[in-house]
Design a protein that fits this description.
It is built from six helices and eight strands. The chain has 172 residues and is α+β, with helices and mostly antiparallel strands.
């Protein structure tokens, strides 16, 4: 069995972000939850109030032999508006902020490289958080794989992005 790595990505509503990220070849597993807030073991109902400090986040476990962290982050940036503070699509609030939360400081140089490249493409400053993961609490079960369970459920991402993610690193 190959060694896997973990990264935590906040890309607005976690239903669509998870569905997008799990399409990428090399992503071994995903789970949605709440990261870097101040309330221990929050519920979705509590996070929804925007008083807990948590961001809706996807815990991504990936195989670096199949997809690099750099490429995974480049794909992540294609699914977010990195200049929109506390808002993605029609979803608004601090829980919908964007962020990259890492657990291994050795990942920071790659993260910094992607952030710098993305900033070069933009006229406005990036507002994507880039922080060590403080903690992550798994969301309730009905949120896990939500769009698989509810194919016509709400999603702020265009469906073309899911197809893009499926094809993104197939030719490598």
């Amino acid at each position: 069995m190959r060694a896997t790595r973990d990264i935590y990505l906040a890309g607005g509503c976690f239903w669509g972000a998870e569905h997008y990220l799990k399409q990428i070849r090399g992503v071994v597993s995903t789970e949605v939850g709440f990261a870097n807030g101040h309330l221990e073991n929050p519920t979705y109902k509590q996070v929804y109030t925007d008083t807990t400090g948590h961001a809706e986040t996807v815990h991504v476990t990936y195989d670096p032999a199949e997809v690099s962290l750099k490429f995974l982050l480049e794909l992540f940036f294609k699914a977010i508006d990195p200049t929109s503070l506390n808002r993605q699509g029609e979803d608004e609030g601090t829980r919908y902020r964007t962020g990259v939360y890492y657990t291994d400081p050795a990942d920071l140089p790659q993260i910094e490289e992607v952030f710098a490249a993305e900033q070069q493409k933009l006229d406005a400053p990036l507002v994507v958080e880039k922080l060590p993961l403080q903690h992550f609490y798994r969301a309730e079960e009905y949120h896990q794989d939500y769009l698989d369970k509810n194919p016509s459920g709400y999603c702020h991402l265009p469906s073309e992005l899911f197809d893009y993610a499926r094809k993104a690193n197939r030719l490598k």
